[in-house]
Amino acid sequence: MPMLRSLMLDAVPSIQQMAAVAVGRLADHSHSLAEAVVKEDILPQLVRSLATQNRFYKKAAAFVLRAVAKHSPELSGAVVDCGGVDALVLCLEEFDPEVKEAAAWALGCIARHNASLSHSVLEAGAAPLLVLCLLEPDMALKRIAASTLSDICKHTPELAQTVVDTGAIAHLSQMILSRDVKLKRQVFSALSQISKHSVGLAELVVEAEVFPAAFVSLKDPDEYVRKNVATLMREVAKQTPELSQLIVNCGGLSKVIDYLGESRGQLRLPGIMMLGYVAAHGEGLAMAVILCKGVPQLALCLSEEPEQHMKAAAVWSIGQIGHHTPEHAKAVATAGLLPKLLQLYTDASSSEDLQAKSKKALKSILQKCTYVPALEPLLYDAPSNILKHVVCQFSKVLPHDSKARRLFVTSGGLKKVQEIDAEPGSALQEYINAINSCFPEEIVRYYSPGYSEVLLQRLESYQPA
Amino acid sequence: MADLLILKQAEEFRKEYFHRNRQAEENRQKETQAAIRIQSWFRACKVRAYLSHLQKKAIIIQKTWRGFAARARVRQMVKAAYFTVKMNFYNEMAVRIQQRWKGFYVRKYVHNFYARKTYLEQILIKNELVRKELDEIWEAQKRENEHLEAVKQQKNKIHQAHQLHYLISTNQLPGVFNSPYRQTPHEMELLLRQVKYQVPASLAHKDTGYPRGIRDSVGVSFSGCLESEGPISTRTWDLRTRLPPIASRNTRQKTKRL
User: Closest Cα partner for A434 from A405, A454, A461, A463?
Assistant: First the structure.
């Protein structure tokens, strides 16, 4: 390492460049080597000579800075401390696209780690230069600039606002229609990072007329493009009901549901969450989700995905769809989701998060569900806190509907209700009493447990006249 | 005797007078008291009569006055009650009108059932339209991609033909691709025949002035595939091949630029 350092001070320019490239490759390899590079004080020297040298040296120096910064926040901090950011920003003003690309990539690696590093990158005035890089014809440079902007924006709203103030959104939205797959990945990722922070930013993104155009990319063969588009839609839909309304009106729901059908595994997560957020905003939107056949698709996702957090997300979305009105709850119940939710709740192998979410979803759906055939199977297996809600729903529905009462009796529901024992005075007992009062007394007595013994005792004490 | 009689009479007269005076004197007290009593009683009766007369008149006055005042008040109360009855009636009617209007308004503008139904249907229609449009766009893109792929394949073949140009068949010897047992020559053979000489690509690569290996390792992950995607390609070797031959011959003599 000291040898390389002295080589970097050599008179011949090509030796300097080669030495710089060698240092960069060493630092790229592992964390400890990068730390060694920092310890040797190579960085300040690089930064000092960056201002004077030709473009190949600048590219090699930027490569070194990137290789050091990418390993951890502390190393990036070291790069920032020796004035690396200002030097890289100077490189961004060069003419050669490859120098700009290397500088932008290094800035991206620095900004990726945390918010304060991104802040220092922005303070050096990188944002307008990066936006200018977006306009360059070189495809690799565009990709790098988009990915750097995405890394900067992802930390806090202020950073995203600063980037947006330089007019990045318009350029990013123009690049949505490009053919290059990797560029599209970065562009969508940048847009979704910008829109996730606040309503204003999301509205700015939407005003740039991103939406109907983005749906085309939902069918892109590249899975990361699809995932990033779904993430963008999710972040925008999350913010307000009006934005979700906008997406639904543009016909986005059907595309997302198709996307869910076609992709597998982790890729589905943003699509599932998007449906959940749209349904959460209002019951009209939830109805739109149901009509576009969202619920069967979510049921498929729930059954196909083995991962716990995917299941938790699907369960949450189902809960958001079903909890608005009895119509919604009926739609969820007819898809056969209530027994599944119950099973996920009671299954010991589900994670805590999954259990909590399925319980919450089940409760909120049950409180609105008046569809009797779906409620009946739940009477048998449910634990007592769920059972309370099921019985409560029955006590609401049965007084008014005679056919339901008949069905209740013939399918054995009344028998099961009698077998539940609840403490007198608890809510469960009140509901049971309410149900019992819907039926004539003889029927209730007939189904109450131990009735046959009572009859037999009466038989024994009976004397024929 | 007469004198004595007169004297006796006078004496008796005087005695009588004295006795009568004394009697009268004794009775005077009693009589004054009695007279006082009678007089006071009579005065009392007079006063009582007067008072009762006054009272009767006062009663008459008060009676008339109270009747008058009460009737006036009753008239006022009746007016007020009538007014309240009318206002209640109007309020009732106003409430009914407002109920009907609010129901109408809400059902027509705020929670319009039919609008919601059409809205949901519209969403479905829009979804279908969008699906179709995007499918079409997708098909077009796929076709274009396939076209680009085909062009790329063709270019590769032509490049290969350049490399393998020596395999072309001559008059004396049929080439590898031109077996005598075939009815028509292989397409490769045809390509070989069509291909014209161009500057070899390896010579044109030298002009970046920077070792090629380094450039690739530095920029490899983001430089993507071999073909440049933009309308203006910045690959230097493309630029070189488009320049007239004089420039290309010069590059062979240039040393590595620093």
Answer: A405
